[in-house]
Design brief:
Two copies of one chain form a homodimer. Chain A has helices spanning about 20-30, 40-45, 65-80, 130-135, 155-160, 170, 175, 205-210, 245-255, 270-280, 295-315, 325-335, 340-345, 365-375, 405-420, 440-460; strands at about 10, 35, 50-55, 60, 85, 105, 115, 120-125, 145, 180-185, 190-195, 220-225, 230, 235-240, 265, 290-295, 315-320, 350-355, 380-385, 390-400. Chain A is an alpha+beta fold. Chains A and B meet through strand 11, helix 8, strand 13, helix 9 and helix 11 of A and strand 11, helix 8, strand 13, helix 9 and helix 11 of B.
Chain lengths: ~475, ~475
């Protein structure tokens, strides 16, 4: 997912905190031209790719070093003013909105690779580097960073939201792939968590606590992530199915057999039609799996044969191979453009995206019941999913000027989340909670766990200045 | 590692907190025969497999349900009395010692499998079940739980120390394999963290915060872990090398090539000699790698051929295969008994064990410099390691009555930890911090991160009753 999802609408009950002129003066004195008060810059930093809107931050600091971040936080702390870290701006759940006012700390200029340890399969980067920049920078090492959320997000943002995407079924998510952090705390202190060792039992797992904390516990200034050897062989295939059910059962059986498939994406027949129109393709307009296999030549062949056998059993047809990098790129570009294709299919529409993830055994039930519901609603939609992980996204294509349609789409989302939770799943597989899913988080984990999160937040950020108003209200 | 490591010696500056008779009376009223005051029972619960000693807890509650745990914690909280969770008693770093007094909560009777979700490759268990009990209980599902720290530890204890062991190179550690928890908090409340979904971005990762928290943030009462399909083919092999360096370089290259080896253990020539004597084997008394490959028949063959080629390049000889389960069991039993074999090699000795873990590229340097050091010291030792992860254990075989020898062994450990940290490694790969490694933790992560841990502890356990005096002093 990598584009605006719904018509922006102003949040209710915004309570802006005071940003004293003395702080602005101090920031300008410290940062000079690195501190912008320009309306356009502030507005750009006060929104993300989601559907919510709030007044922009009062200033934007373009940090160029850890010291810059620490100094900005220290100044903000002195005046009890919120700070909101900003990377590529591609988050979806209102993470970047200054819902309590404050200043934005833009780390996009902190985009250097600090050290590549190819022998250890690790790299340490600054938070503003994007995943594509990172892969470009290391392309001569024979290694790659696999996490691919679609958008060319920053590694800092991906860490902060515990992102994943198409390759997670094989390579895991940011949870598994961040090894160590340098972090600026709420008081502006610089701390380190984790090491480059592959495993450790040394005290609380602060790294994993910070990954997915959405900027509310600290601002990441250095990130060490795992890399992987570029697979010797890569092969991609598409396969069409008579029904979503047949496609999903193929996936379930593939996962249950332990086939180390690298990517397996579901695209429903509506979405294939939209993709064909948008990307000038002639894919069969039936539910489709888009798969990729990584490994040795023999391993890839064996995996592909196993999956082909399973698919055939469920009525899969037209197993088509894409072995050249160009063909693969064409297919994955079509997949990544599914969102745009969908939005173009209904002129003037906006999409409200869902992000549930369920245990694989419940994937068919959860998907099919939800498809019935959206079909009955009459709202046009698209459906894509990282189904190997049990994670999928509906996009309800609504008329932004039709409040009733928006409400019905939100109602569909609520029903979908309730269904996923009742099946042992989660309200968000990869986008995060932000502002939009606070209620869902409470439903999912219960008041006790959210109170524990709140206690940690209060302990580590007593002035509530680190991206306040996200995940839960303190 | 699964046995006593060094001569027990009383901890200095023990500060016991008051355990009022009123609490004992209340526990006896609530728990009846489930609450024991017997000296032998208390003493058994006041020690672990490590070398430190403290006065026993004042009482032991044998919990049989989450409600039992919650009620015991609530009563203890009422009187500000420490509680120490107890599983199989196999931890190594003083985790179970009542260093501030208090009561032990034994969860070993909470050893049921609560639900197997074979299709999702997950199982939910009570914390007292041991890894062998778990694998016995699920043996008809075609699945297994791979984490194997040597000792038949409880899943609760393994979660609390973020344990790993021989299979971690392929299957990860408890960090990667615990999906969800039910936990009793410091106030006796029952909360839930995580879901059975494979991934989630729903708020702070409390599951990962609690895993490895050594009982200081909550007591786990239900644990959901990942399972794996039993591999279609398994093959084990041993290979001898002219030097530790040659063996280690074989491992480094194997990992760097991305070979998905399931186990790769180093045993040095001293230890092979000890193992031969103890287990009546005739292994070549040279540095040895003990390896296991899991996968499809073709995949296993391919992996094994790749590793054999690498080993040959480094002078590896006598690649011997063990393909039957009986042969494999014989080899792995010998490996797991290495500790006992070593201790028997010097009558009356005790072993002080180390647990450093370094990035794989530094493994040879770290190991070889440390071997030189211990050789120069004249102290007999053994050396084994989960070298695929960069984790290894020296055991210094000391005369427990020789204070000078103990001090020199502790000094060797200090030098080893300093070396590992300077190489980007950790003081503990899998045993945890407990009492013994508090200083090392500070060296490793710095005062800032330890202060963050302390702030979390204070927020979640304001009376400091959950296993106090472990990891850091509040």
């Amino acid at each position: 997912m990598n584009a605006p999802t719904a018509a922006a609408h102003l949040l209710p009950d915004i309570k802006l905190r005071d940003v004293p002129q003395a702080l602005i003066d101090a920031l300008q004195a410290r940062f000079g031209v690195q501190c912008s008060l320009a309306q356009a810059v502030r507005e750009q930093h006060g929104r993300d790719e989601g559907s919510l809107q709030a007044p922009p931050p009062s200033a934007v600091v373009f940090a160029q070093s850890t010291q810059d971040v620490a100094d900005a936080v220290k100044l903000a702390s002195q005046y009890d003013v919120p700070v909101i870290p900003y990377g590529a701006g591609s988050s979806l759940e209102g993470h970047l909105l200054a819902v309590q006012g404050g200043i934005s700390i833009d780390v996009s200029r902190m985009n250097q690779v600090l050290s590549v340890n190819a022998e250890d399969l690790t790299v340490t980067v600054q938070p503003g580097i994007t995943r594509k920049q990172l892969n470009d920078a290391i392309k001569d090492t024979g290694l790659f960073f696999p996490i691919d959320p679609g958008a060319d997000a920053s590694i800092g943002g991906m860490s902060a939201t515990r992102a994943s995407g198409t390759n997670a079924v094989r390579y895991g998510t940011m949870r598994e792939n961040v090894l160590a952090l340098q972090v600026v705390t709420a008081s502006g202190e610089v701390i380190h968590t984790g090491t480059r060792a592959k495993k450790s039992s040394a005290g609380y797992d602060l790294t994993r606590l910070l990954v997915g904390s959405e900027g509310t516990l600290g601002i990441m200034t250095e990130i060490t992530v795992r890399l992987y050897p570029l697979p010797e062989a890569v092969s991609a295939a598409i396969c069409s199915f008579p029904s979503i059910e047949a496609a999903v059962h193929t996936v379930i059986q593939t996962i249950q057999l332990g086939v180390p498939i690298a990517r397996v994406e579901l695209i429903d027949h509506h979405t294939v039609r939209m993709v064909n129109a948008h990307s000038k393709l002639t894919l069969r307009e039936e539910p489709m799996l888009l798969m990729e296999f990584h490994g040795s030549p023999a391993g890839v062949k064996e995996q592909a044969e196993t999956v082909q056998d399973i698919a055939t059993e469920f009525g899969g047809q037209a197993f088509e191979w894409a072995s050249t990098p160009e063909e693969r790129t064409r297919l994955w570009t079509a997949r990544h453009n599914a969102y745009f294709a969908a939005v173009q299919s209904r002129p003037g529409c906006r999409a409200i995206s869902t992000d549930t993830c369920v245990p694989i055994s419940r994937l068919a039930d959860c998907l099919l019941e939800s498809v019935d519901e959206v079909e009955a609603s009459g709202i046009p939609y698209f459906l894509v999913g990282h189904v190997g992980d049990g994670n999928f996204h509906f996009g309800y294509l609504i008329d932004p000027n039709d409040a009733d349609e928006r409400n019905r789409a939100e109602q569909l989302n609520h029903q979908l989340v309730a269904r996923a939770l009742s099946m042992g799943g989660t309200c968000t597989g990869e986008h995060g909670v932000g502002i939009h899913k606070m209620g869902f988080l409470l439903d999912e984990t219960g008041a006790g766990a959210v109170d524990m999160m709140r206690a940690i937040k209060r302990a580590l950020d007593p002035k509530n200045i680190l991206n306040p108003g996200k995940i839960f209200v303190v």
